[in-house]
Each structure stands twice: as C-alpha cells, then as structure tokens.
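for the record, two folds in this file. i put them one after another cuz i was lazy. first one right below, seq on top, structure tokens after. the second one comes after a little note so u can tell where it starts
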Amino acid sequence: MTVREKTSVTLKYLIVVASLGGVLLSLFTATKDGYSHWARRLLYFTAQSNIWIGVTTLFILLFSFTAYNEKREKRLYLFRFVFTVSITLTGVVFCGILAPFADKYGFRTWSFSSILTHALSPALSIADFFLDKRNFSIENKHVALCAVPPVLYFLTSFILEFFYVDFGRGEPYPYFFMNFRSPVGVFGFSSKPPFVMGTFYWFLIFPALLFIIAFSYKRLYNRKKAK
C-alpha cells in the first residue's frame, strides 16, 4: 500500500469519526444547546449531510475488505461525490452565513460537535475526495444528482414549516433563510441582518452555489484522475 493509499484510508476513518461521532455527540448535548428533544437535531441539514457522508464512507471502508466489485465501487463513489457536495454546502453555508449570527440567537457556534460536523467533516471529506482517485469520470448527469439531497431536504422542511412543526428551539423553521414568515417574508428586503432578503432570493443563491461546487469538483476530479 502506497503512502497515498494509507493517507486516504486514514482520512476515511477520520471522516466516519468526525461525521457520525459529531452527530451522535450533538444528540447527547441537544438539551444543553437549547433543543427540546435530541431527535429534533436530526431535522437539520447539518446532521443529515454528516450522516450521508459518514455512512457512505463507512461502507467504502467495509467493502474494501471484500472482493472487488466494479459496479458496486462505482455506485459507492458516485454516492461519495454527491454527499461530498452536500457536506461542502453544509460547511460553506454554516461558516459563511450562519456562524456570524449564531451567537446572537443563542446557538453555541463552535462547540466540539459543531466543529466536527461543520468544519472537520467537510474538510476531511473534500481532502479524501481529491486524494482517492478512482477509474471513472464524473459526468453532468452525476452533477445533477447532487441537487437531490438538498432539494428533498428543503421540500420536506417547508412542508413541516407550513404546519408549524417545532424544529427544537421553539421555532417552526430550521434556518433563518427558510423562515418565509420572517419580517421580510418571501420577496422582501431589509437592512437589518440576518433577514436581509426574503426566502425566494436565498433559494436562487443556494442552487447556484450547489452547482458551482459540483461542477468545480467534477472538473478538478476528472483532471486529477487523468494525470
């Protein structure tokens, strides 16, 4: 086994620990962090994206001890691509949009579980994605699949929000940019952060950000694979 391969295996173990361990720790500390019940934390994209990448990576590790199966490997590494984009979106949105206002709303921004799920897990997943090259190319149809997890999440969350389901902190929405009942509503604007614009505009920005990440990863991965 080469140094590169050993490093990739180590990264995979760390991803499993950071993602699944971080989510598990966040459940144990849920009430301390102001949530009414530990299960409410599972309603957030952070927890779900960490579970997706953690479970996928765990399966990659487990199947590495079995006989090689090309079809299975391609499927697993396709899932890894899709969920690496999701976990990247988690890290970018939290660090760039949520963290600056989190303390103001009573969130423990940089608790240990938060560092694991919002920073370490994304960083490790991105590093392993580009380090562990496989013998297939990422195609445009694979990029399109990257939209499935966040779209399903947002649709489900909006349905819950419509029925005033509590996301664990006494609020019927998981993130401020998903609050269509905020002072700016769906189409409004404001000079007072974080509600600077309505949910409609946020949901033009997020798909654009998602596909920028996905197409960038596709291009870089295919280029590195060809070398």
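(here's the note) second protein begins now
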Amino acid sequence: MTEPLIRRAEDIDYEDVGAADGMRKGVLVDESHGAPTLAIRRFTLDPGASVPKHTNEIEHEQYVLAGEYVVGIGEEEHTVSAGDSLFIPAGTVHWYRNDGDEEGAFICAVPTGDDEIRLAEGD
C-alpha cells in the first residue's frame, strides 16, 4: 500500500533547467515519493528569461501561480497570469518568455515515468 506524504516547502530542492537560462524546477511529488500516476513540479521563470521551442513526449497540465509571461503553443502566443490554466498535449511545440519585471511561477502536473524533451528544429 502506498503511504500518504506531506512535503514541506523548505524541503524542495530547485535546480536550473539546462536548456533555459533563468528557469528553475522543483519536483514537489513524483514516483520517488510514492506517487504512482502523476508528478507535480513547480517552475519559476526569471524576468527576461525564455525557454526555446520544444516538445515533450508526455502531456502537461499547468496552473500559473504568479507573474505574467508568454506561452507559445503551436503557432500562437498567449499571455498568461496567476489563476490561468493550460493543457499542452504530448508532442506539441511550445515555449515560454517572460517579458515582465516579475518572476513567473507555475505548477506542472505530468504522468509519472520517462519524458524526452526535444528542441524544435531551427531553434
């Protein structure tokens, strides 16, 4: 039987995301914590930071916690802010850009297991 878990904010380690200067990721809960189906992660995006166009092999559900930033999905750009939600299907080209003066932050829920990130051609 899987055991319940409480993780405190001060116990979350954040690391730089390799392909994106100014983006950091903290794994809140995933399979290493006993979660069999979903993982939740918290990302921050510094003012002026951007993430190049890329795809993931798994779907992403996101909830914006703070700031205002641009999310490109497919051929469209969308400005998002706290309280907005996003669904990015597996294999969809997407990217991020924070043109504002405040840090952006979002929660991302994904299926547990492996995910391959591929930079989009030409970017």
